[in-house]
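Hi there, hope your week has been kind to you so far. Please have a think about how the structure follows from the sequence. I've dropped the whole record in just underneath, so have a look:

_____
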Amino acid sequence: MNDSLDCKQLPEDFDTLAPDGSEIRLLAAASRGSMVHCTLNPGEVSVAVAHKTVEEVWYFLEGTGQVWRRLGDRERIVDVSPGVSLTIPVGVHFQFRTVGDRPLRFVIVTMPPWPGKDEAYPVPGRWPADG
């Protein structure tokens, strides 16, 4: 059990770039999940990836964009904006892009916590990527 009572302020600078090319700012983490703040700048398109072992829940805070997800023969593109949430199940191919002149910002909860750089692997995407 994680008995830590940690508290973390959103950092101004990003901590790392995600395998998809988006900016990641680390937030709280516990034994069964972790949370980050993600930014994709105006005009950018992420690299399409899938996850080996983690699932995620995304909640959009700012900007507008689109998220493409594919699982087997099922494929869906959704418009995202503040207040929208969605899931990224294990093995789902996904890609996202900004639409408009504001950064796309959202919170990601990852379960279990992000295991490291080998978790995500590239997949064929819906749009040409910047990364």
